[in-house]
Amino acid sequence: MKEVIITPEMATELLKSNICNRVMSKAAVNKYSELMKKGEWYLSHQAIAFADSDDGKEVLVDGQHRLAAVVQAGVPVKFTVVRHAIQTPYIDTARNRN
Questions:
Q1: Per-residue pLDDT tens over the stretch 7-63
Q2: Main-chain phi, psi angles of 12, to 5 degrees
């Protein structure tokens, strides 16, 4: 786990590993993007997380909306990034994933 400044270009690349998340909410992306553009997005405990797939590739498991907002806002943002996260079926169950 480490803090990383994610640029829009980096976010675009990281989103390519987004293969197991729920449908993107444009409203959430718009909200986050506006906060980022205004400089009102702050580093928090909630990380951008990647798990290892069976074939050894990284899969984005948490953070698709935040990364999409970085792309939309066009500004770099600092996040905590976790690699090798363990996917669990009982975390963040407010909206179903597919």
A1: 999 999 999 998 878 889 999 999 999 999 999 999 999 999 999 988 888 999 999
A2: -60, -45
Closest among 12, 13, 93, 18 to 61, alpha carbons compared: 18
CB 3 within 8 A of CB 79: yes
Return phi, psi of residue 81, to 5°: -120, 130
What separation in angstroms does the CA of 1 have from each of 23, 35, 81? 26, 24, 6
Residue type, 55: D
Q: What is residue 55's predicted lDDT score, i.e. its pLDDT?
A: 86
- DSSP state string for 21-84: SPPP-HHHHHHHHHHHHTT-----S--EEEEE-TTS-EEEEE-HHHHHHHHHHTS-EEEEEEEE
Residues 85/62, Cβ–Cβ less than 8 Å: yes
